[in-house]
Amino acid sequence: MPSFLLLEVLCLFLFAGVMWCSAAVDILFLIDGSHSVGKGSFERSKRFAITVCEALDINLRKVRVGAVQFSSAPRLEFPLDAFSTQQEVKAKIKGMVFKGGRTETGHALKYLLRKGFPGGRNASVPQVLVIVTDGRSQGHVALPAKQLKQRGIAVFAVGVRFPRWEELHTLASEPWEQHILMAEQVEDAANGLFSTLSGSAICTITSPDCKVQPHPCRRKTLETVKELVGHAPCWRGSRGTDAVLAALCPFSSWKRVFLTHPATCHRTICPGPCDSQPCQNGGTCVPEGLDRYHCLCPPAFGGEADCAPKLSLECRVDVLFLLAGSAGTTPEGFLRAKAFVKRFAQAALGEDSRARVGVARYAAELALAVPVGEYQDVPDLVRSLDAVPFGGGGATLTGSALRQAAERGFGSAARTGQDRPRRAVVLMTEARSQDEVAGPARFARARELLLLGVGSEAVRAELEEITGSPERVMVYPGPQDLFSQIPKLHGKLCSRQRPGCQAQSLDLVFMLDASASVGPENFAQMQSFARSCALQFDVNPDVTQIGLVVYGGRVQTAFGLDTHLTHAAVLRAMSQAPYLGGVGSTGMALLHIYDKVMVVHKGARPGVPKAVVVVTGGSGAEDAAVPAQKLRDNGVSVLVVGVGPVLTEALRRLAGPRDSLIHMAAYEDLRHHQDMLMEWICREAKRPVNLCRPSPCLNKGTCVLHDGSYRCECRAGGEGPHCERRTLRGDSPGIRGSSPEPAGDQ
Asked: Which cysteines in this chain are paired by disulphide bridges (predicted)?
């Protein structure tokens, strides 16, 4: 059968709504589950296969799908005639368990030569084999791969991680550029396949305006290469004294290197709502179907449909610009700094703005040129800036200027707490300081001043030392790039800084008190607090998973760890969490998390740090200390966020022996403690983890740590790497046929 007809069946990867495949065809996934692939890449292989299935019309008369996992030996996950709906196939693939073992690709291919496609229709319909592997077989693959292709089977080799390039070519059908794909690059793989589908009756293009364009691409692999090290004396000839010759012989070593391979890919270009790049100012366009989109905007540009400038400062803030005017500053640099302040004022100070701006110039001494708040009218402020002179002399004493700005830069008003606006010093300099800056910077920050730095690359390190964080520094590569920092400055003035461990792998569950003692209004503030914290993390199955449990008269899982895979979905689900009322039991809610949420078969990942954040009004916490300790003993960190005028002894016991308690008097104060919570989470995420806690073994199997990994020792009647299968051979009739349940560890 022509290979292009078989290729047309795999039109899978194109965006939903662009391609649909409905024909009589058998597709078998052969997925590498060996140790060289690893658990992370195995999960990506499963997601790849699921993505394929989303464009297939799966039923027993049209597209049939099956799966085999291989490592030391092949294992049939499900035959092609096992399921008749797309949902069933996707669910079965998602539930596949990583085997581990050697990479015996050749044995798996021979298994298919002997057995054929399990549950398939033999050669009466096209047969497509999709091999997902890193191409690092420990046996020979050339002969069985050739024999499979001689039977008319179209073979696709899909590389994961850093595959061995030569082996992918050995496995795949020709032409190779159409049969070798990368699971990490789903969209590009789809475009390459689509180049053969334009005349197909098997798959239908729903958008006739799509077209195919070739483009050069490169594939990256990790290979073992032989490298000449040098020459050394060696002896050649017989052992006789007259027949031995001395010579210099080459000797080599083997090393692993990254190699890139040039290739030609085919890109499918379809008209879409994001083609015109409607999102401005660094916004990301996200298509919604074929004619709609929405923009993910940077903080400074939120609130507008296309991230159009919305620079009016909505926060209440006093800003003092501190401009260097010393001998180390050029007149042109000083004029640019003044122009920057003028443009910022014109963009950010609107009629409704609650911000006030002032300007100071410094060299050896600080000169307050425009006091903060003296001009409310923007044109008057701009004219006053024109009159600020360039000193052009003296030493660059930035440390002294910071101390003076903290002492007298914002006037003598004694407003404190909620009555005082946020105060910020924006230091603009291109010259290194000639005095010590660390002490004055600490002095300024101790007075609750937000320090921000704008400067050239030459002063980056000093600005980071002054501000206390790289996130508070804006560096421009050239003079022409200075004004592009205005939106960034706007965002930093009004947004709180992120602690910076968003990329840490973490399973995180929020547990919110929804009892009658809290009330619906305060519960809404808890929801807002949880949403703000969730924004700090990179939510996806490979990094951070987030779950939510609410409790009152009953305990309810609002959503589990593996339910929502994006920020948007998590935030939407948090907003929809129900207020329950009734009398709450914190201990019962913690036991619910222990038994039904923070468990492997509900989405918790082995080897990933785990944390529970309890937000409670304190009522009903009397029974919570023991369940909280039970979670901690199982490798789950527990933090208590207690709200109420009095810190109760029950909350102290619930917090445990470590510093795991944040207390505040009112629910309105939750937003002020987000940074403290994030610091705790980041600290807990770096603690060592135990792969057996919580146990990944089901059906009361025992988890045993072994050589940096783990294995499950199954009780009688249990089988599988995680004891996930029950057999009729069990000694205890009472456990036959029961559903899987988590187990202990040792």
From this structure: 714-723
The first and second tokens of residue 615, run together, are 């937000």
Task: Choose the weakest-confidence range: 110-119, 564-573, 628-637, 651-660.
Answer: 651-660
Quick one: tokens of 421?
Answer: 């606006």
Mean pLDDT of 552-572: 89
- Give the integer Cα–Cα distance in Å for 92 and 65: 11
Tokens standing for 671?
A: 């937003």
- Burial class from Cβ neighbours inside 10 Å (0-12, 13-18, 19+) for residue 707 reads exposed
Interacting residues of 461 by C-beta distance below 8 A, sequence separation 6+? none
- Cα–Cα distance, 458 to 333 (Å, whole number): 14
> How far is C-alpha 265 from the geometric centre of its chain's CA atoms?
27
With pLDDT > 70 as the criterion, what percentage of the chain qualifies? 81
Q: What is the sign of the dihedral through the CA atoms of 391, 394, 398 and 402?
A: negative
**Contact predicate 672/643, CB 8 Å:** no
pLDDT for residue 498 is more than 70: no
What is the Cα–Cα distance from 672 to 469, expressed in whole angstroms?
A: 19
**What pLDDT sits at residue 449?**
87
* Torsional class of 243: left (φ above 0), alpha (ψ -120 to 50), beta (otherwise): alpha
Residues 6+ apart with CB under 8 A from 295: 278, 279, 283, 284, 285, 286, 305, 306, 307
Tokens linked to 729: 């051979």
With residue 231 as reference, give the H or E element that holds it. Answer: strand 211-237
> Where is mean pLDDT largest: 173-177, 273-277, 465-469, 514-518?
514-518
Average pLDDT over residues 38-64: 86
102 vs 112: CA distance, rounded Å: 18
Q: How far is 298 from 301, CA to CA, in rounded Å?
A: 6
Report residue 192 CA to chain centroid gap.
Answer: 27
